[in-house]
User: Fold this.
Amino acid sequence: MLRLSWLHRLHKDMAKKRYSDLDLDFITHPVSGDITFKYDEDAVKQSIRNLVMMGIYEKPFHPEIRSEISKMLFENFTSITSFEIQKQIEDIISEHEPRASIVSVMVTQSADYNYLNVSLSFFLKGANNKLFDMRLPLERVR
Assistant:
C-alpha cells in the first residue's frame, strides 16, 4: 500500500512537468548523488542558450545545427548586424527547438561594456499560453 501511494505521488508530480533535460552544470543531487534535471521553462531556456551559442561541428554528426552569431560579435554593430542576429536566432529556435514558440527577439548593444544583449520572449508549447522572457548577454571571447 505504501509503495502504491509513493508511485501515485511520483506519477502526479511527473504529470505537472512536461519537459526535462539534464542540467548541463552537472550539479549532483545532495541526497541521491545523481545528476539533477531541469524542467519545463528552465530546460527550454537552457536549450535555447545552447542553440544560440553552438558553432559548426559542435554537435556531433549534425553540422547543420549551428549558429553564426559568435562570428558576428567581431563585426561593427549596425542595424543590419542586429537584424541578422535576430533572424538567425529566430531561425535556429524555430527549426531545432520544438518546445518553444518565439514571439519576439530584440538585440541591443552596450558599447561601454562591449557586448550585445538579446531579449527573447517565447511561449512554452503546452503550458497554458504562458509567456516567458529570457536574456542572453553575448560577449566576445577573444
About this structure: The helical segments are 2-16, 40-53, 69-72, 79-96. The chain has one domain: 2-139. Residues 79-96 form the longest helix (18 residues).
